Amino acid sequence: MVRPLLVIPLLAAALGGIWLARGALQRWRDLRAAATYELAGERWPMLVRAGGAMVCGVCVTALTLLTALGAFGVLSRGRTGADRAQSAVDAAEAGAWPGSVPETAVRQQAAPPTAAASAAAPAAASGAATSAASAAPAGASAVASRFDSVGHPGGGELLQSAVLGPDGKPRNVRVWLPPQYAKESNARFPVVVVHAATPGKTADAEVPDVVEGVGAALQTGRIRPFILVAPEAPNGTAHPCELVAAAPAAVADDATLRATIAASFRTLPPGPASWGALGIEGGAPCAAAAGLARPDLYGAAAAVSGRYDAAALAQTGAEAPAGSSAKLLLAAAKGDAAGLDAARKLQTALKAGPGPAAKAEVRVSDNVQDYTADRERLRLVRQAAQFLAETLTRAS
Questions:
Q1: What is the pLDDT at residue 363?
Q2: Cys staple from 329: which of 139, 153, 209, 387, with CB 3.0 to 4.6 Å?
């Protein structure tokens, strides 16, 4: 692989060597001409130029090898893999905590990266990822994954990495860091998991308004900063969140995702005070199911413009862990009659449900109205972000 940073000194050394070699040759010819007429001449100028040409030749040879073989990249990848493997061993020896990654998953994540992942720039270069020891809770059995920067939407930074899913297979996970993450180097931030509705896609790719809406709300000072985490929706069904709506018990505690994010970034400890869920349109049922099924893990959930299976979600809320109370925002545009009807039916079903379902705090937002559907969706995302930011603990 050609290294552009090595091509420039390579060309400079080659041109310098040619210039010095020509100068040495000219001096040598002058000396021969002087000897013909029995005149004395200085040899030092010729020797200096010849020596410089030899040095340039050595430099050209070395730079050519490094450029052709990409030795710098190979060495850096080797060091990164060794460090990550050592981190995996250290983390595995530290012990386990409830909901941590199984040891087998830790070993798999600690394996050497693929060629495609190795070719990307380390996340450490962007200053986004931190060490597992500083970010993970005490005794957490997790490995800090290498997240590579893929853009800067919404004024923050978007990164991506492959993280093991609940089925044990790697899936893409994108993380959006707010602008405050780089500015406040010692602060830890709450996390919001954004659910996607299209198999093989992340929510930010499916609905770009997610990042833009949160970024706009941050720039206007309406919300406190938090980190967005967008895992890739699972394959196997055309509409993953419709499956969840039909069987909400399928929403599992994604311990691998939570442990990896906590180990890779400066986040507040995973739990209801600092982690929330968000879903837009097709992803809304997933967010509602996550908040209702595990209020002990997700302190707040916001569902935007969704359609819900009220009976199934009410049953899920009734089966939530005892002593927990879900906080749920159901938002839809003023002109979205079907969305508002679905939200109110779910609210009514939860109030009439048994146990923890009846204790759920459910808000329905119906005041958003704008000229186009895109503008309404952007405003709804801002509203959902404000609800989540107010409910979760502020960055500290």
A1: 93
A2: 387
